[in-house]
Design a protein that fits this description.
This protein is mostly beta strands and 135 residues long. It has one helix and ten strands, in the order ββββββββββα. The protein has a single domain, classed as Jelly Rolls. Strands 1, 4, 5, 6, 7, 8, 9 and 10 form an eight-stranded antiparallel β-sheet that branches. The N and C termini lie close together (5 Å).
Length: 135
């Protein structure tokens, strides 16, 4: 079973002029990006997510503000990450239940390994708890 981890994305620039971070093929994202979207105007301390994906993998990047991400895999192992820099992303493998808490007017960019398929989503935690890892 794959584990979630923080990806450091190279920031180029300087404090006085600003920074640029680029995501390119064969870079640090561990999959080909097929879809991207962003979440914004989520009230502080509000939770999003509360779901898992059967096969889709994602990287979440806080473009502004901060997020705290709570993850649980099918073996009931739990992880917690806090991200507050746009040069870091969180890799979330498939089969991880996620809750994302927003802080400081966070704007979060999500990179996905697949286009949207409703049948890939597990939105019932009780159903998620019955799933078994493929490895």
């Amino acid at each position: 079973m794959k584990l979630p981890y923080v990806i450091d994305l190279e920031a180029k620039g300087a404090q006085e002029k600003g920074f640029l971070t680029v995501v390119e093929p064969n870079g640090p994202i561990p999959f080909e990006v097929k879809r991207l979207y962003w979440l914004y105007d989520v009230p502080d301390l509000e939770e999003r997510g509360n779901q898992a994906h059967l096969s889709n993998e994602q990287v979440l990047i806080p473009m502004h503000g901060a997020i705290r991400v709570y993850l649980e895999n099918t073996k009931r192992k739990k992880f917690e990450f806090e991200l507050h820099r746009p040069d870091q992303g969180l890799f979330i493998p498939s089969l991880y239940w996620r809750k994302i808490q927003f802080f400081d007017q966070a704007v979060v960019l999500a990179l996905s390994s697949q286009i949207y398929h409703q049948e890939d989503y597990v939105k019932d935690y009780a159903v998620f708890r019955t799933l078994k890892a493929s490895t």
